[in-house]
Amino acid sequence: MPKVTAAFTEARREEILNACEQLYQTTDFKDITVADIAAMTSLSRASIYNYFQTKEEIFLALLKREYDAWIAALDEFRETHDEVSVDEFADALGSTLQDRWQLLKIMSMNHYDMESSSRPEALTEFKVSYGASMDALEACLAKFFPTLDEVERENFIYAFFPFMFGIYPYTYVNDKQREAMKAAGVDYVFMSIRELTSRFVKTLLAPSLS
C-alpha cells in the first residue's frame, strides 16, 4: 500500500473544505449533509470520515481557515504601515472583515453546533487559530496606539470579538426580515460590514485615546 503523505492528506482536506464552502454559498447549514459534500469531491462519503468525523468538524475547519486568512490580513496591514489614525485603523479593520464575510456568517449562525459536535483535537486546532487572531489584533493595537496599556488593549479585544458574532445577521437581511421589521414599525438602517465595524472600533477607541 502506498504511503500517504502529509501533502496528500492536506490536499484532500482542502478539497473537502472547498466543496463545503461552495455549498454554503447557496444552501443552509442545516440542509447540507456529508453526502452532499462528498458529491462535489473526488471522495466517497465513507472516505470523508477519514478526515472529518462530522459535518460540524468540516465547518469548524472551514472557520479555522477563515480565521487564518483574517490573521494574514491583519499581519500584512501591521507590517506595511508605520502609523495610522483611529479613523484609518477602524476603516482598515472593517475592510479586513468585509473580505471575510463567510467567517462572520459561519460564526454567527453555527458556532455552538460546530464546537459541541467536534472532537477535542479538532476543537483545539481551531482554538489555536482563534487565539492567534486575538494576538494579531492586539499586536495591531500595540503598534498603532502605543499609549494604550495592556488592560485597555484587553478591554478592546473582549468587546470586539463578541461584537463580531452580530455583524453578519445585522448586515445581511433578507426580504422576509425586512418586511417583518416594516410591519413591526422597526427602522432598519443598512450598513455594510466595513461601515458597521468602523463605527464600533471608533467608539471603542475614543475614550482611551481622547
From the alpha carbons, calculate the radius of gyration and give it in angstroms.
Answer: 19 Å
CATH topology of the largest domain: Tetracycline Repressor, domain 2
Q: Class of the largest domain in CATH? A: Mainly Alpha
User: Roughly how many Å apart are the termini?
Assistant: 66 Å
Structure keywords:
about 210 residues; mainly alpha; Arc Repressor Mutant, subunit A; Tetracycline Repressor, domain 2; 2 domains; about 75% helix
What does this structure look like?
The protein is mainly α. The chain folds into 2 domains: 51 residues, Arc Repressor Mutant, subunit A, CATH 1.10.10; 154 residues, Tetracycline Repressor, domain 2, CATH 1.10.357. Helix content is 75%, strand content 0%. It has 10 helices and no strands. The N and C termini lie far apart (66 Å).
Q: Which helices and strands appear, and what pairs or packs with what?
A:
Blueprint lengths: L5 H19 L9 H6 L5 H4 L6 H26 L5 H13 L2 H16 L3 H25 L5 H22 L3 H9 L9 H17 L1
Helix pairs in contact: 1-4, 4-5, 4-6, 4-7, 5-10, 6-8, 7-8, 8-10
Short note summarizing the structure:
With 210 residues, the protein is mainly α. Helices cover 75% and strands 0% of the residues. It is globular.
